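lol forgot to send this yesterday, sorry. struct tokens for the thing we talked abt
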């Protein structure tokens, strides 16, 4: 492709990456999730730093592939994606907009825990459908490593909760 990338800024890359959704939670982008941590352009090369939710996240390779595809659409041929665990990912990084998107999608976000995820695990869980707190955990293992299954006794709907990390 060898396109002139002189006019592409870091802000342009961030906007493009906002379109790359999490493969396991498609209502949020990797930017919304704070998985993409840093972007640097060096001439015709782009460097992206990311931190997955879990070190062993099975979606890491899909996320990297989706990021590469999006950056190639911008014209980059040299793409470096580095994993960093220097600052571990935490559900506290999710802002209010991301939490609302999760809830609208039917996944209850964890409460903020300020570094003590045990407090969030023991907190009441609100049903994303009827907003009742009359819920019970059915299974700590959901369809992905970062979710668990709950049941609402009020509206009788099963739902998922994002695990506090």
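and heres what i got for the seq, position by position
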């Amino acid at each position: 492709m060898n396109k002139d990338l002189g006019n592409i800024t870091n802000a342009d890359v961030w906007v493009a990456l906002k379109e790359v959704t999490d493969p396991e939670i498609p209502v949020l982008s990797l930017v919304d999730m704070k998985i993409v941590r840093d972007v640097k352009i060096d001439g015709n090369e782009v460097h992206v730093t990311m931190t997955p939710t879990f070190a062993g996240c099975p979606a890491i390779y899909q996320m990297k592939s989706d990021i590469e595809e999006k950056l190639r659409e911008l014209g980059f041929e040299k793409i470096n994606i580095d994993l960093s665990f220097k600052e571990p990912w935490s559900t506290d990084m999710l802002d209010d907009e991301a939490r609302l998107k999760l809830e609208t999608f039917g996944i209850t976000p964890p409460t903020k825990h300020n570094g003590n995820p045990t407090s969030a695990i023991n907190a009441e869980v609100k049903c994303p459908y009827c907003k009742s707190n009359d819920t019970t955990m059915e299974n700590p293992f959901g369809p992905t490593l970062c979710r668990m299954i709950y049941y609402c006794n009020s509206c009788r709907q099963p739902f998922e909760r994002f695990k506090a990390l």
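The longest strand covers residues 36-42. anyway ping me if u want another try
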